[in-house]
């Protein structure tokens, strides 16, 4: 009996991965430049509850200013060396989408507007690292990075800077760092990259100890740090030997039917030379400007891809094994998987949501909520961080029969 149940579960999972439900009903994936809308009633949802969820989202817009530079100063201006070095953008108003069974059942604001998505960018960054693992450009996430990357030549436009190599993983501590600890933000990487030292990001403790403290062993301590995220982006760029936005476009964004309006960028000084060409190393968020600029529809497509564990309409774009690793809790912070997969472990992040759900989160707040139990994706932009659970609670109430 147990064997039969296991086999039925396997068949069910296999059929879902192939874009088919076990009973033969096709799973809907939106084609490029089109996305079918269905009313809540058509999908058996409570229309009044959906309306209430939309009202909740629009009524709890983030209180931060809309001007990009002022917002950056408000978030990070108290940090040392906090001046932006990448592009910023004034944000729009509260915006979002509710996707149920692949269909759009509600939208608000201006989902076509391209805005900074801040640290949601990190989920796209970890994805291109996963693509490198799937294609054996990286043998294992447990491999150290130092042995795998070349000397990195800095590019100075116009010959204004002398030729220079940098070695971001050559210190005694950094030579121990693996892709795994970089992906989980447990590396304690040390150094300065693009004129931003690691200690300048959300510094803690005594200022006299910022540069001299002992380093934590890799994996021991979780610390959110954008300098280290950018070091991972740089390492991944040298592995691919091409711009990461090109990789993302070819293997993820084009196959899922994303628009051509998104833009992933770095800093004015984050240029290197690879294969005799100038390539920009992109940033993993908007801390100092840059990162991914994207509309809500394209965010939702990415959310659907992760909801279906890397499968899009029968094609496995990124391996299920990678998604499994991304969803594995980090020992030093069980609410975090790979960047920037925030897990609902013990329902601490979202008490109203299933423990199996996760959220790709960025400052703003920007969020992509993924809930396989309910076949649900919710994108919300510029909502107060503390109101994420309230929004999801309202959406889930619409699913109750």
Automatic annotation (TrEMBL):
Keywords per UniProt: Hydrolase
Residues passing through the membrane, by range: none
This protein's record includes keyword Cell division: no
UniProt cross-references to SUPFAM superfamilies, sorted A to Z: beta-lactamase/transpeptidase-like
Any GO MF annotation of the entry: hydrolase activity
Domain of life: Bacteria
Pfam family name, one: Beta-lactamase
Organism: Parapedobacter luteus
Segments forming domain Beta-lactamase-related: 118-380
Identification of the protein by name: Beta-lactamase
InterPro entries: Beta-lactam-related, Beta-lactam/transpept-like, Diverse_Enzym_Activities
Presence of the UniProt keyword Glycoprotein in the record: no
